[in-house]
Amino acid sequence: MSVKPKPLRTIDPVWQQIRAEAEDATRTEPLLGGLFHSSILHHASMANALAFRMSMKLSSGEMSEQILREIADDAYADQPELTDAARADLVATYERDPTCHRFLQPLLYFKGFQAVQAYRIGHWLWQKGRFDLAYFIQMRVSEVYGVDIHPAARIGKGIMIDHAHSIVIGETATVGDNVSMLHSVTLGGTGKEEEDRHPKIGDGVLIGAGAHVLGNIRVGHCSRIAAGSVVLQEVPPMKTVAGVPAKIVGEAGCAQPSVVMDQLFAMRTGRDPLSE
Predict the structure, then answer these.
(1) Residue 258, C-beta contacts closer than 8 angstroms, at least 6 positions apart
(2) 187-217 pLDDT tens trace
């Protein structure tokens, strides 16, 4: 008798690795055994663990853990792509952040990863027309993680936000796939206009710490924005920009800046060692 293969989403090597790491961590640090069991080992799937973690971190006197857990469970059941995006974000963090040595670290400890997953639940609520609840999630993410992402913003998968303090992403902003950004990045508007007013970040972009991208401008795919830059004009694909206001100072230096995470460039000579 033939055996019907399992759907791909039921085969999750990332989740199996997280569980194995949690079992090992429980043996190594038994004082945190309760955390590893309640957050990971107690759950049958990554979606269940994500829902539990979000509800634990964002609950307050105004919204109980149980209600938040039910909201998140509904979101993951209704839109399995949310779990796919979380898995891609987790792998991106593991591959790009040199301080990340295990898959369980982002899920348990990294506020950049956790804030993005909570945003995704808020975005799901926004798409369902549940605007007040989406705003509530945004507020709690800002209070808990210091990250302010409007629930209407559109963010791709494979996102890595390192340190994640003081991140601001506006209502009409879009962020492509495989983007990396560091702390204190702003994707903001330039005034009080109410239409499409925020940046559009392409795939594979690296945004340095403290960079501000302002207005309805496009940042081309696989480009680099240097730390502390203020970007007010469109950035062509595969370029490096720096300064206040930012100007093109060279090529992107490699095919995937957001993966390589190299923020150095030779500004005086215009020579970028990565491109050689």
Answers:
(1) 96, 160, 178, 179, 180, 204, 205, 206, 222
(2) 999 877 778 999 999 999 999 999 999 999 9
